[in-house]
Amino acid sequence: MRKKIFHNGGLKLGSLVLAYLLWLLVKQFGDPVETATFRGIPVTLTNTELLDEQNKVYQVLDNTDKVTVIVRAPGSIIDDLDASDIVAIADMSKLTEINTIAITFSVQNGDTVDSIRGNPDVLRLTVEDRSTKPINVTYSIVGEVADGYIVAGVQQDQNRIQVTGPESAVSRIRYANLEIDVSGATSDVSANVDIQLFDAEGNLLDLPSVKKSVNNVRLKVEVLAAKEVPVIVNYTGLPADGFLTTGVVRCNPPTVMIAGTLSELNNVSSITIPAEELDITDATGNVERSIDIRRLVMENGVRLADSSFNGIVTATVYIEPEVERTLEISPANISILNVPEGVRVRRGEADSPYRLVISGLEADLSQITEDMLGASIDLAAWMKEEDMEELLPGEYQIPVTFNLPESITTENTVMMQIIIVSLEGM
To answer: Under 8 Å CB-to-CB from 99, ≥6 apart: which residues?
Structure first.
């Protein structure tokens, strides 16, 4: 038996070697080894809680958390692989003193591959203390609402948030801002607006390592129709004896912007300050009052359009001393009107010009001349007042009337002498 087993041993051994080589040749040509490259494979970090326990945070440097992986395996395996089958892991427990972690690569479907490697094969990090701080949230309005409309107010659900991240990144943040566009708006604009972070110089920051307590805030911009209307000032009372109102009443500001719906605005043409708000009784100089018109505006069903305006206007009634002036009037400049039919009249001999004393404001009196007085006597009107049916020959004293502005008062009565010399037909 032994002789049979080892008989022609060399030939038998050669046959085995030849069979193995033939198997390898068949395997190689039947399912050859191929190479596949997969780009942008994400690196998964494990055991990150180890840094959390130390109140530290990390940032990946140089995009080393996205790697290119090269797999070498038989073609039958390569054909079935895609990027989702490639696993790249960096274990935080293996962090080195220079803040690097070796990346391990594998195929998650369990297929056997000849080799797998990645580039880069090391994850590089910065590790810092974690920092948290509160920051204010402001807002910015972009664009212009439609003509005839205004931004009447802004409401935001939150004006303060917290940011958490690496100390070096958090220290750069000064404030957060919400930006909303109201271009062409004719009604309220509202949206959930993403929060943007800014440094002290107003530069927008891109800090992916920083986490916000909320990522967006609800912002509502109230848009209303608006128009400008005058403020009308009324007053009550009379100034002290010897003083007059100039007729000038001013309000500062003279107009205000009001806002509301179009139908509400159409019903309002002015804001009127009632007389009881401004009493000038016995005043000897200008009367000035500060008046809050917000209530008056609201009573009209509208509101003040400018939120920065406190609603206080200053109303002023101007008062000046009453002055007197004496005018001399030549009898020849006094017209005789409405002479009864058949009556002949001549002027009496006057020793001197007639004197008329007028009073009023200096500015008004300075404009008056004798030619402007329109001095006259009206015989028909005088006879009616005196209940006279006819004028008999003789001398009469007739009051002279003057055409003076209402702001000027006469302080005396000028009487002109006339003589009825004859009645025709008598």
So the answer is: 58, 124, 125, 126, 127
**Region of residue 394 (left: phi > 0; alpha: psi -120 to 50; beta: else):** left
Which of 336, 335, 361 lies closest to 420, judged by CA? 336
User: Given pLDDT bands bounded at 50, 70 and 90, which one contains residue 26?
Assistant: very low
Claim: this prediction has a pTM higher than 0.70:
no
Position 331 scores a pLDDT of 87
Which H helix or E strand runs over 73? strand 66-74
Question: In the structure encoding, which two tokens stand for residue 236, read together?
Answer: 């009550």
* Residue indicated by tokens 């892991």: 89
Of 7 and 139, the structure prediction assigns the larger pLDDT to 139
CA–CA dist 158, 137 (Å, integer): 7
123 touches 45 (CB < 8 A):
yes
pLDDT value of position 270: 96
Strands (DSSP E) contained in 323-365 are 323-329, 335-337, 343-347, 354-360
Contacts for 404 with CB less than 8 Å, ≥ 6 apart: 358, 368, 373, 410
A 10 A CB-CB count for 338 gives 13
Tokens 């939150």 locate to 158
Beta strands in 114-185 (DSSP E): 115-119, 122-142, 149-156, 160-166, 175-181
| Euclidean distance between CA atoms 348 and 400, whole angstroms | 14
* Angstrom distance (rounded) from CA 43 to CA 58: 14
Classify burial at 400, counting beta carbons within 10 Å of its beta carbon; exposed 0-12, middle 13-18, buried 19 or more. buried
Q: Look up residue 145 and give its DSSP letter.
A: P
Of 350, 352, 354, 345, nearest to 395 by C-alpha is 345
The Cα-based distances of 146 to 189, 229, 306, 336 in angstroms read 13, 19, 17, 67
Give me the pLDDT at residue 30, please.
62
Q: How far apart are CA 73 and CA 38, in angstroms?
A: 14
* Confidence class for position 348, pLDDT limits 50, 70, 90: confident
pLDDT at 425: 47
Q: Is 407 helix (H, G, I), strand (E, B) or coil?
A: coil
Residue 198 reports pLDDT greater than 60:
yes
Please check the confidence at residue 426 and state whether its pLDDT lies above 70: no
d(CA 204, CA 214): 18
